[in-house]
Write a structure and sequence with these properties.
Number of domains: 1
Number of strands: 5
Oligomer: single chain
Structural class: alpha+beta
Shape: globular
Helix content: 40-55%
Strand content: 15-25%
């Protein structure tokens, strides 16, 4: 009985591995390539799956997601998602925009209560955030102005 159960589990794992096959790079590889291209690329931490699941309501349309956050000074973020089976890109983009708007609203509230340079800097980064699509990948970048161009170029180059 134990052998049969073990065989069934092994077959289930094999089936899951086969159905998750995708073309291209994993999002964690892409995110780290974008991070590496930045002049100040220290301090970024890969966020755990629980945070990603809570923050983004469209994950059922993706098969891979990675979010890097740098909280050493003012927040910087890199988020990259790979769509599942030619998924609905507009729904994922809308979900990312919704997340960014929620962060902007929260920062507006905090900045009105506690005005200061750090919150103003964070707010400006989120207001200038960029969403970029390439094939079945979509990424968002909350970075300084000069870093945005570097991140976009690195994202597109990594997918070539």
């Amino acid at each position: 009985m134990k052998r049969l159960l073990l065989l069934v589990c092994a077959l289930a794992l094999l089936l899951c591995a086969c159905t998750r096959e995708k073309n291209g790079k994993d999002t964690d590889v892409l995110a780290h390539e974008v991070r590496a291209a930045l002049s100040d690329n220290t301090g970024f931490t890969e966020i755990d799956d629980d945070f990603v699941e809570i923050s983004f309501d469209f994950l059922e349309k993706t098969d891979d997601a990675t979010v890097l956050i740098d909280n050493t000074s003012s927040t910087r973020e890199i988020g990259i998602f790979h769509l599942r089976d030619q998924g609905d890109m507009s729904a994922v983009e809308s979900g990312i925009q919704s997340y960014l708007h929620q962060e902007i609203d929260s920062l507006h509230s905090l900045a009105s209560l506690y005005p200061g340079a750090e919150l103003t800097e964070k707010l400006q980064r989120y207001e200038k955030a960029t969403v970029l699509k390439s094939g079945s990948y979509i990424g968002y970048f909350v970075l300084d102005g000069n870093e945005l161009a570097t991140a976009k170029a690195a994202f597109l180059a990594a997918l070539q």
